């Protein structure tokens, strides 16, 4: 039942009225009477009898005869709820979009319909439901073993996978119905969407379906174009929460009814019902957009890995970088890495140079403190002279998102709410980023100074400064409010925030990575990993060094993330990061749960929880408002017991009608 109470997180038996005997099938939405109220529910199973000794009530009505919840997705939702100490009802809300009655009544789509809007396919799409001649093999088959799978129709479609020694074998295994599991580190300049589309095509040619999850709409558009080019129109649907209720439900029904063999989408697609699912793939699994912000807070990568484990499905975890979680898959042998040899890596990568090493300091003493040292200026000028575009990555958006007193350097805070003051333009008065109040008459409470200086420079101010420095060069910005997708050839400056970098025709001549301190000094367990992810994503858009491509990172070359960028070796950094987390006892080396709430509520939940004997309770640490956070750490082998104990304790509290909630998050992205 769709009731958000932990102690009611179990199936209930109801009688099916005779008039609903044919239509009330497993997977349909129903309405039932519970505790005197009508509530929504899911029909999970039909049985001849019930083990319940008491009197059973009848289903009140059938909401829709459409069986939108498949048995495979129902099992997955239960497994995800158990892993994250959550409720099945919460997971089902994420798995199945809200019903749209008009869309359900629409006739079956024709091959002439627009697949992007109608979720339709051509009449050959049903071929994805055929059985592969090779037949399934065990889930332990690796990409290294895949090369022995023999030849197939996919041999002619290896594309860019030839640049990776294990790539052709991975595609052959997919085409022959095997279940390889791979962690792929994409090369610089790689058309990652085309490579994933080729893996999807190999899976479809083998008679199975595929599911691919990306982080945002920009990546989804790029993948949509690649899959359409590879498979043809009408063979897939794009599923995203941004589509709107009707389009999203139409695409969902196309997948559920088996009209299309392939689903691509953002994290909203991680539960998509794909017939005979043969491949699950995720691009850039380190992006925090893959983490669901609603209970029970599942991560798309973990959902797809759970799905592969339950269904003996092939896996592709891909990105320019590699997370500690992906490295754990490789080191435990659960997956095999698909990487290029070092000669190919060197041939494809741009020349990467830091600004804080000794030779640069000798030439430019201000290189350690300047926001844009001479080396970065020279790289930009050289690229512009060669009539190639320049990408400048700035971690912060806006104009001056943070200002300080020009006299005593104290951060400027709002006199009403103590929020940070910011400038939205050169002539604007300072305004609070929290409450929005304008502080036109601001005076520093420490020294009474009235002059302000920049503490943090945003993308728009950077664009303004570079526009003055290069007056004859067009300057474009790409960020949350306006995202560029492609940059035409020729000289030009693009100022971008992380994640909004456009693709340039032929690649960027130079990529400048500014304000590295803003990424590296974050109070976050994943600060180094996230910095490297953002740098590699931008640097991968540069031309190879042989074509004049340069990357300048304004940081000390001795820092570990900078060293990984210089070597272009994300696997080395991931292995080092995982080793350090093992030593310190942090995820993913261990399983950790975060409990956030008012102190009394958190203490009440911990008192009710029967934690495993190996559990360590850490904290408290301050959280937002008047709340605190406690951390519970256990070995990975005891993860299921921890989740079960926390779920049971939450059930005790809801049964007692505890007034103060506690947010339970298992393996949250942010611990502090």
UniProtKB/TrEMBL annotation:
One of its GO terms (molecular function) is hydrolase activity. Keywords: ATP-binding, DNA replication, DNA-binding, Hydrolase, Metal-binding, Nucleotide-binding, Primosome, Zinc. Residues 3-97 form the Primosomal protein N' 3' DNA-binding domain. Residues 99-158 are annotated as: Disordered. Component of the replication restart primosome. Residues 114-157 have a biased composition (Low complexity). It comes from the Bacteria. One of its GO terms (biological process) is DNA recombination. Zn(2+) 2 binds at residues 414, 417, 432, 435. InterPro entries: P-loop_NTPase, PriA, PriA_3primeBD, PriA_3primeBD_sf. This is Probable replication restart protein PriA. Zn(2+) 1 binds at residues 405, 408, 444, 447. Binds 2 zinc ions per subunit. One of its GO terms (cellular component) is primosome complex. PANTHER family: PRIMOSOMAL PROTEIN N. Belongs to the helicase family. PriA subfamily. The gene is priA. Initiates the restart of stalled replication forks, which reloads the replicative helicase on sites other than the origin of replication. Recognizes and binds to abandoned replication forks and remodels them to uncover a helicase loading site. Promotes assembly of the primosome at these replication forks. Its cofactor is Zn(2+). Pfam families: PriA_3primeBD.
């Amino acid at each position: 039942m769709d009731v958000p109470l932990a102690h009611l997180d179990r199936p209930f038996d109801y009688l099916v009225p005779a008039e609903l005997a044919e239509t009330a099938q497993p997977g349909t939405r129903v309405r039932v009477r519970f505790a005197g109220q009508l509530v929504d529910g899911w029909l999970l199973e039909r049985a001849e009898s019930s083990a319940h000794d008491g009197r059973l009530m009848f289903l009140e009505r059938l909401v829709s005869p459409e069986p939108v919840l498949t048995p495979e997705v129902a099992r997955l939702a239960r497994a995800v709820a158990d892993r994250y100490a959550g409720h099945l009802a919460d997971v089902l809300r994420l798995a199945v979009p809200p019903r749209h009655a008009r869309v359900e009544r629409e006739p079956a789509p024709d091959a002439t319909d627009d697949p992007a809007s109608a979720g339709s396919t051509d009449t050959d799409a049903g071929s994805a439901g055929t059985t592969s001649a090779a037949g399934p093999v065990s889930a332990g088959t690796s990409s290294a073993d895949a090369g022995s799978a023999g030849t197939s129709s996919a041999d002619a479609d290896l594309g860019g996978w030839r640049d990776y020694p294990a790539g052709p074998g991975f595609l052959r295994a997919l085409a022959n119905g095997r279940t390889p599991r791979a962690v792929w580190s994409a090369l610089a300049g790689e058309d990652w969407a085309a490579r994933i589309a080729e893996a999807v095509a190999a899976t479809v040619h083998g008679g199975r379906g595929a599911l691919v999850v990306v982080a945002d709409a920009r990546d989804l558009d790029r993948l949509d174009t690649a899959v359409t080019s590879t498979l043809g129109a009408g063979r897939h649907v794009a599923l995203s929460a941004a589509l709107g209720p009707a389009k999203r439900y139409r695409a969902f029904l196309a997948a559920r009814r088996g009209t299309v063999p392939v689903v691509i989408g953002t994290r909203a697609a991680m539960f998509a019902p794909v017939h005979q699912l043969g491949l699950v793939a995720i691009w850039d699994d380190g992006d925090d957009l893959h983490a669901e912000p609603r209970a029970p807070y599942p991560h798309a990568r973990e959902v797809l890995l759970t799905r592969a484990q339950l269904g003996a499905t092939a896996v592709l975890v891909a990105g320019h970088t590699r997370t500690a979680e992906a490295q754990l898959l490789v080191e435990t042998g659960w997956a095999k890495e698909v990487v290029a040899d070092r000669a190919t890596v060197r041939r494809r990568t741009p020349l990467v140079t830091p600004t804080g090493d000794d030779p640069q300091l000798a030439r430019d003493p201000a290189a350690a403190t300047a926001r844009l040292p001479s080396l970065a200026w020279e790289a930009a000028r050289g690229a512009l002279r060669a009539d190639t575009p320049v990408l400048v990555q700035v971690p912060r958006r806006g104009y001056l998102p943070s200002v300080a007193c020009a006299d005593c350097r104290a951060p400027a805070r709002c006199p009403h709410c103590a929020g940070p003051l910011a400038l939205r333009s050169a002539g604007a008065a300072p305004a609070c980023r929290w409450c929005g109040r304008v502080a036109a008459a601001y005076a520093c409470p420490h020294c009474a100074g009235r002059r302000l200086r920049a503490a943090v420079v945003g993308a728009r101010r950077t664009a303004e400064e570079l526009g003055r420095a290069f007056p004859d060069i067009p300057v474009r910005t790409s960020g949350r409010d306006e995202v560029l997708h492609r940059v035409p050839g020729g000289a030009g400056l693009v100022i971008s925030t992380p994640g909004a970098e456009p693709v340039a025709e032929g690649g960027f001549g130079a990529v400048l990575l500014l304000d590295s301190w803003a990424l590296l000094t974050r109070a976050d367990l994943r600060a180094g990993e996230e910095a490297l992810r953002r740098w590699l994503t931008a640097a991968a858009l540069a031309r190879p060094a042989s074509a004049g491509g340069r990357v300048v990172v304004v940081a000390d070359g001795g820092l570990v993330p900078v060293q990984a960028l210089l070597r272009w070796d994300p696997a080395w950094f991931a292995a080092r990061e995982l080793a350090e987390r093992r030593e310190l006892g942090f995820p993913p080396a261990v399983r950790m749960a975060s409990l956030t709430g008012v102190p009394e509520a958190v203490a009440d939940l911990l008192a009710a929880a029967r934690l495993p004997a190996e559990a360590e309770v850490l904290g408290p640490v301050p959280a937002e408002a008047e709340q605190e956070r406690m951390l519970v750490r256990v070995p990975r082998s005891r993860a299921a017991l921890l989740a079960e104990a926390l779920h049971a304790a939450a059930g005790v509290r809801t049964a007692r009608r505890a007034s103060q909630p506690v947010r339970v998050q298992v393996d949250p992205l942010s611990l502090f």
